[in-house]
Each structure stands twice: as structure tokens, then as C-alpha cells.
């Protein structure tokens, strides 16, 4: 069958859209974009969906929260909930969590947080990340960092610029565990002084396999078992 | 047309990023599974893709295409780059599955939008060899050389099928480029 030859310029655009091998040498023209859009639609048509495993969804959700925290919130924007689907499933485990909490040794709390932080920072296996402000208007201008060690199951938050929580509310830490399905693990309640630096020992309620991110929310006084993540003030990790 | 989410994603709206993940993660993860040799690699690639989507969200122009094509364009480019960087090829067992079109039962129906159905209908109108080459190139990340070796036809013929298939598909889908230089 005789077919009309394709113009060489068009061939280059088609190849670039098909293989992604333009290497930046081909201008991003509307024609190239139209081929890329066509290729993307065809890709969707021939690709089978694959359910995302829970551990991956948690990683994606943590990245998503981090992205939200990196975007300066618009003052008039309503704060909306982030509700990973499996969070409600953890409610059934809540009793177990509380029991674990009650029987967990408290030696970590007895060590001076500054000393503990110095020791953790000296351990090359420790997770160490800076805080980024979350989308909550209660964030202030939070800075500082978190150091955590999976082996030791200990960690310390260093916080600056976080305003005191409103009356009747407290800050609560959540730990995103890469090896755990479901909701982030409760990392403990705390308050901050109005000014200056605050060091807070992490009080993980469950064993953390591999910490991926830390999230601070504002909750009602006494804390919650499962956060609705309505007021995320700081995120660290990944 | 589904509600646009990327403008809200660009503004850092947690509900929008969550909804975007729910809407597109299975498709993008499915594509990553096709391109990557291991489950772990596919998960890492999926994570990279979504991070790039969040970062690029503010560049999304609804007049230039849908959110799905925006996300899948990023996904394909990232998967191709990743494959080159790591010197990896898609798993052989998945290549053996490459057919003309995926079986409908293989797909989560809830994820199929009108847009995908339209693309499927258009693909079905292509010649069989064009469908096969596009499937291997797009859903499996195969180079023209790999496709030629896999299905035993000359490289020039593979290129011709791919180019003519994509051209015809653009026409069938009614994707018309605006005048060059207008954007």
C-alpha cells in the first residue's frame, strides 16, 4: 500500500512524543503538545489500573501533605480536611493503642531532652529533618527540626516560632510509619511556651518501623485517637 | 468533565490533593508497574511522579488538555527518564502480556472516564499492527528497536506504524493543535 510520506519535521515531533527522546532539543510547540496529549490518552486507554498498596498510599499522602505545607496558605482559603481512607480503620485498634501507651516504659521521658537530642544527632542512623509550616492558620512561623531513631524508638522535637495553642486545645504529634498500614501513629501531646525554643520528647504510642514523616496538628485538649488533620501546623520528613 | 483539581492542588488544598490521588493513583501506578522491573521500583517511581505533579500543578492549563493527560504526560516522561537513568527495562513477563488492547475485565471500571473510553474507541479503529506498536511503546515503554526485536519486523516499519498510528489517533480524537506560536 502506498502511503503519503510524513514530513521529516513532523516525524521528529511524533518520535519525540512517542519516545520522550527530545532531550530538550525540540521546542515545546502546540503541535508537539497535541501529540503528547494524544500519546497520554492512548496510554490511559491501554494501561490497566493497579490498586495502590496501603504503604504506598501513605507515602503519597505524606508527600501530598508536605506539598500543602510548602504552599503559603491564602488567608481567605477555608482549611479543609485531609482524610486518608484507612484512618477510620484504625479506630478499631484504638483500644490496643491506648493499652500499649499505658504499659509502655517511660524511661525516654526521664532523660533530659537536650541531652537526648544531642545523643540522637550523633547517631548516623537517626532521622533528622527540619519543620515546614502546615496549612493551618495557627502555624505562626514555625521552624526547628525533629530527630528520631527507629532503633532506639526515641526522638526529640525542637520547635521555634510556634504560637501557644488556643485555649482548650493542644498540639499533637503524628508519626507516618512507612512500614505500617493505616493512620499515622500518635506521637504524644505537648504545649509550647509563647516565646523561645521548646524541646519535646517524642512519645510514640506504637513501635515505629521506619519513620517517614512527622506531622503536628492542633487538637482538643487531651488529644484524639485519630486526627481529622483539620489544623496541620508543621510537617517534617521525606 | 470532572471537577478541576490541579488549580486547588497548586494552592495547597489538602482535600484537592487527596481527591487527585484517589482519582489518578491507580492509573499512574498501573503504568509504573508496566515500566518498572520490580514492585519496589514501581512504587518509588509512582512517588516521584506525584511529587512532580504537585510541583508542576501551577503550570496546568485546562485549555490545553485534561488533568489526566497532564498527569500521564508527566508520568510517561518521568518513567522514560527513570528507565534511562537506571538502565532498566520493563519486566519480560509483562511484555509477554502485551496485546492489542487490554481486556476490559483487567480494568477497574470506576476509573474509566469518558475520555479513556473515547481513546479506546479511537485506538480500536487503528490497524492491528499500529495498535500493537503503540501499546508496546506507550504502555510498556519499549523503544522502537526493542519493539522491532520483540515482534520481528524491521525498525523502519515499527517507526512508520508508531508515527502513522499516533497521527491517525490525534485525528480520530479531534485533538487539533492551536496555531504555532499562539502559546
Give Rg of chain A in angstroms.
24 Å
* Gross morphology of chain A: elongated
Q: Please tell me the overall pLDDT of chain A.
A: 76
Spatial separation of the terminal alpha carbons of chain B: 23 Å
CATH architecture of the largest domain in chain B, by name, is Orthogonal Bundle
Could you describe the largest sheet of chain B, including whether it forms a barrel? none
Give the helix level of chain B as a range of percent.
55-70%
Helix content range of chain A: 25-40%
According to DSSP, the number of beta strands of chain B is 0
- Hey, roughly how much beta strand do the residues of chain B contain? under 5%
Distance between the termini of chain A: 56 Å
Class inferred from helices and paired strands of chain A? alpha+beta
- Average pLDDT score of chain B: 80
Please count the helical segments of chain A: 6
What does this structure look like?
The complex is a heterodimer of chains A (238) and B (183). In chain A, the strands form 2 sheets. In chain A, strands 2-9-8-5-6 form a 5-stranded antiparallel beta sheet, covered by helices on one side. A 4-stranded antiparallel beta sheet of chain A has the order 1-3-4-7, covered by helices on one side. The N and C termini of chain A lie far apart (56 Å). Chain A has helices spanning 8-19, 30-46, 54-70, 94-103, 107-110, 113-122; strands spanning 127-130, 132-133, 143-149, 154-160, 169-177, 185-190, 197-201, 211-220, 232-237. In chain A, a hairpin with a 7-residue loop joins strand 5 and strand 6. In chain A, helix 1 (8-19) crosses helix 2 (30-46). With 238 residues, chain A is of the alpha+beta class. Chain B has helices spanning 6-10, 14-35, 39-56, 67-86, 92-96, 114-124, 128-139, 144-151, 155-173. Chain B has 2 domains: 1-88, Orthogonal Bundle (Rna Polymerase Sigma Factor, Chain: A); 91-175, Winged helix-like DNA-binding domain superfamily/Winged helix DNA-binding domain (Arc Repressor Mutant, subunit A). The relative contact order of chain B is 0.10. Chain B is mostly helical and 183 residues long. Chain B contains 9 helices and no strands. In chain B, helix 2 packs across helix 3 (39-56), helix 2 crosses helix 4 (67-86) and helix 3 crosses helix 4. Chains A and B meet through helix 1, helix 2 and helix 3 of A and helix 2, helix 3, helix 4, helix 6 and helix 7 of B.
Amino acid at each position: 500500500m502506498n502511503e503519503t510520506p510524513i514530513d521529516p519535521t513532523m516525524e521528529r515531533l511524533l518520535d519525540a512524543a512517542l519516545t520522550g527522546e527530545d532531550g530538550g532539543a525540540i521546542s515545546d510547540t502546540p503541535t508537539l503538545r497535541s501529540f503528547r496529549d494524544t500519546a497520554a490518552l492512548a496510554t490511559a486507554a491501554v494501561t490497566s489500573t493497579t490498586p495502590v498498596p496501603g504503604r504506598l498510599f501513605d507515602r503519597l499522602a505524606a508527600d501530598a501533605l508536605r506539598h500543602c505545607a510548602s504552599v503559603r496558605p491564602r488567608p481567605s482559603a477555608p482549611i479543609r480536611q485531609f482524610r486518608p481512607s484507612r484512618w477510620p480503620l484504625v479506630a478499631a485498634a484504638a483500644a490496643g493503642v491506648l493499652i500499649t501507651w499505658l504499659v509502655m516504659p517511660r524511661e525516654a521521658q526521664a532523660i533530659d531532652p537536650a541531652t537526648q537530642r544531642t545523643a540522637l544527632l550523633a547517631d548516623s542512623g537517626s532521622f533528622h529533618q527540619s519543620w515546614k509550616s502546615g496549612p493551618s492558620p495557627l502555624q505562626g512561623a514555625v521552624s526547628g527540626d525533629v530527630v528520631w531513631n527507629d532503633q532506639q524508638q526515641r526522638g526529640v522535637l525542637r520547635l521555634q516560632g510556634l504560637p501557644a495553642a488556643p485555649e482548650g486545645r493542644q498540639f499533637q504529634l503524628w508519626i507516618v510509619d512507612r512500614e505500617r498500614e493505616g493512620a499515622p501513629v500518635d506521637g504524644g501531646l505537648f504545649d509550647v511556651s509563647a516565646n523561645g525554643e521548646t524541646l519535646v520528647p517524642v512519645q510514640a504510642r506504637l513501635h515505629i518501623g521506619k519513620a517517614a514523616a512527622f506531622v503536628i496538628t492542633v487538637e482538643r485538649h487531651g488529644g484524639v485517637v485519630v486526627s481529622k488533620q483539620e489544623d496541620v501546623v508543621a510537617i517534617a520528613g521525606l | 468533565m470532572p471537577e478541576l483539581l490541579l488549580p486547588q492542588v497548586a494552592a495547597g488544598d489538602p482535600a484537592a490533593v487527596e481527591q487527585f490521588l484517589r482519582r489518578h493513583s491507580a492509573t499512574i501506578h498501573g503504568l509504573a508497574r508496566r515500566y518498572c522491573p520490580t514492585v519496589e521500583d514501581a512504587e518509588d517511581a509512582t512517588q516521584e511522579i506525584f511529587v512532580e505533579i504537585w510541583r508542576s500543578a501551577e503550570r496546568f492549563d485546562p485549555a490545553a488538555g485534561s488533568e489526566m493527560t497532564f498527569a500521564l504526560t508527566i508520568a510517561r516522561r518521568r518513567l522514560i527518564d527513570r528507565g534511562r537513568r537506571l538502565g532498566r527495562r520493563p519486566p519480560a513477563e509483562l511484555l509477554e502480556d502485551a496485546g492489542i488492547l487490554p481486556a476490559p475485565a483487567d480494568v477497574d471500571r470506576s476509573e474509566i472516564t469518558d475520555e479513556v473510553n473515547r481513546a479506546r474507541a479511537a485506538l480500536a479503529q487503528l490497524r492491528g499492527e499500529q495498535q500493537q506498536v503503540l501499546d508496546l511503546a506507550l504502555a510498556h515503554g519499549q523503544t522502537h528497536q526493542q519493539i522491532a526485536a520483540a515482534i520481528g519486523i524491521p525498525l523502519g516499519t515499527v517507526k512508520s506504524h508508531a508515527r502513522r498510528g499516533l497521527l491517525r489517533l490525534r485525528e480520530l480524537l479531534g485533538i487539533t493543535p492551536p496555531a504555532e506560536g499562539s502559546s
